């Protein structure tokens, strides 16, 4: 009986030692929902310190990536704004060109109409139509 009691105490002591070793090798991380960027470590301080270093370096990487993403988004917005401005200027210039071409076309049409009008007048004069020439009258009476 005494032997059984000693064996039982030895088993309990072995179990406690195993549990203590397990606590030494494992670091428990607690996550706080209110502060998602912070991790709280308990138990083995050496391993927890390593975990906190890893967690903080991980957070630094996340912050750097977020900053890079924000910078790229800002650059993209700036480029989109510049493209929109350039397209607006291009559209305005194209409108000016079309307007100038329209004016040139109207001017050509006026010149062509004026040339045709003058040509018709010359033809009327040549053909004697309208009142372009005075009427010639011939009379057989002698002038005394």
UniProtKB/TrEMBL annotation:
Organism placement in taxonomy: Eukaryota, Metazoa, Chordata, Craniata, Vertebrata
Region described as Disordered: spans on this chain: 110-144
Family: Belongs to the ARGLU1 family.
Pfam families listed in its UniProt record: ARGLU
Residue stretches of biased makeup (Basic and acidic residues): 110-124
MF (Gene Ontology): cadherin binding
Lineage: superkingdom: Eukaryota
InterPro entries, sorted: ARGLU1
Name of the protein in its database record: Arginine and glutamate rich 1
Taxonomic source organism: Meleagris gallopavo (Wild turkey)
GO cellular component, one term: mitochondrion
């Amino acid at each position: 009986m005494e032997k059984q009691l000693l064996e039982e105490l030895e088993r309990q002591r072995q179990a406690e030692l195993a549990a203590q070793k397990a606590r030494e090798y494992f670091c428990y991380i607690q996550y706080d929902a209110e502060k998602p960027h912070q991790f709280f470590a308990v138990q083995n301080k050496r391993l927890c310190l390593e975990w906190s270093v890893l967690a903080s370096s991980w957070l630094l990487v996340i912050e750097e990536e977020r900053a890079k993403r924000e910078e790229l988004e800002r650059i993209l917005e700036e480029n989109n704004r510049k493209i929109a401005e350039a397209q607006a200027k291009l559209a305005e210039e194209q409108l000016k060109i079309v307007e100038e071409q329209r004016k040139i076309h109207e001017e050509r049409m006026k010149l062509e109409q004026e040339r045709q009008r003058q040509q018709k007048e010359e033809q009327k004069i040549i053909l004697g139509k309208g009142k372009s020439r005075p009427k010639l009258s011939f009379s057989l009476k002698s002038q005394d």
